[in-house]
């Protein structure tokens, strides 16, 4: 009986994980379609950032390392780190990118295991919307700490277009597929204020995916 149950459990978990990974792939496919696909979107993020040879770079909330690997593959010679709270995401990042010169560490974004002023550039791609307001503010302050004077932070996250179908799509994506925090961050448009309060100056803003995603470049003041 136990054997049958555990076999049943195994089958259910396999079906579930296959379904989840199909769902994630389908979601990513649809989500990045207006940007010409995920690879093209990641390259666009990389190009948006003004990275220089020798820059030491941190990707906060790196997940499975999609953006980290695009950055590290450019061979800019400086060190590249990815941090995430999820060990399984980091495992995936390490497995998917065994030969890229990046180091993946487990850490919470609001308590980074690095000395102050350690990095020239930092990225947070689709990470801030996972946090409640307090944690997001702590995270921005923590990133300010680990960045060198005049260091640059790049934030890639949802944007709420002014009106119409695009606005509806952004709301639908965050409400149906993301957390309560994501929807709140989008609706309140609080991100730019939080960024300024954490003593960053926004230098550039670009929109992607029909205006549903924003790319922000900001400098540590
Ligand atoms: C939507 S994924 C984004 C992954 C990747 N940056 C990308 O662009 O695809 C969000 C990631 O943020 C991580 N995360 C959420 N809260 C975090 C926190 N407080 N500290 C570190 N990572 C966190 C999650 O584990 C998840 O891997």
The CATH class of the largest domain turns out to be Alpha Beta
Mean pLDDT, to the nearest integer, reads: 88
Present as ligands are: S-adenosylmethionine
CATH architecture classification name of the largest domain: 3-Layer(aba) Sandwich
pLDDT under 50 segments (min length 5)?
A: none
Q: Helix-strand pattern, N to C?
A: HHEHEHEEHEHHHEE
| Distance N to C terminus | 65 Å
Rg of Cα set: 18 Å
The helix tally amounts to 8
Q: Fill in the CATH topology of the largest domain.
A: Rossmann fold
The helix content, as a percent range, equals 40-55%
Tell me what portion of residues adopts beta-strand conformation: 15-25%
Describe the largest sheet.
7 strands, mixed
Superfamily at the CATH H level of the largest domain? Vaccinia Virus protein VP39
Structural class by sheet pairing and helices: alpha/beta
Please count the beta strands (DSSP E, at least 2 residues each).
Answer: 7
Shape: globular
Number of structural domains: 2
Strand order of the largest sheet: 3-2-1-4-5-7-6
Give structural attributes.
2 domains, binds S-adenosylmethionine, Rossmann fold, alpha/beta, seven-stranded mixed sheet, 221 residues
């Amino acid at each position: 009986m136990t054997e049958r149950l555990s076999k049943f459990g195994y089958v259910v978990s396999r079906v579930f994980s296959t379904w989840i990974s199909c769902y994630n792939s389908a979601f990513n496919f649809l989500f990045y379609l207006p940007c010409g696909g995920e690879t093209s979107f990641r390259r666009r993020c990389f190009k948006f950032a003004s990275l220089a040879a020798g820059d030491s770079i941190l990707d906060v909330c790196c997940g499975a390392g999609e953006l980290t690997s695009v950055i590290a593959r450019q061979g800019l010679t400086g060190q590249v780190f990815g941090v995430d709270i999820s060990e399984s995401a980091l495992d995936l990042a390490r497995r998917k990118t065994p030969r890229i010169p990046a180091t993946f560490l487990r850490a919470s974004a609001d308590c980074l295991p690095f000395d102050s002023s350690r990095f020239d550039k930092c990225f947070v791609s689709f990470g801030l919307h996972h946090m409640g307001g307090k944690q997001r503010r702590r995270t921005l302050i923590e990133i300010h700490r680990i960045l060198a004077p005049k260091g640059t932070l790049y934030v890639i996250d949802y944007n709420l277009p002014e009106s119409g179908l695009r606005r509806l799509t952004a709301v639908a994506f965050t409400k149906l597929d993301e957390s309560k925090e994501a929807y709140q961050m989008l609706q309140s448009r609080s991100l730019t204020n939080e960024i300024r309060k954490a003593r960053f100056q926004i230098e550039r803003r670009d929109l992607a995916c029909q205006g549903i995603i924003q790319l922000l470049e900001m400098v540590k003041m």
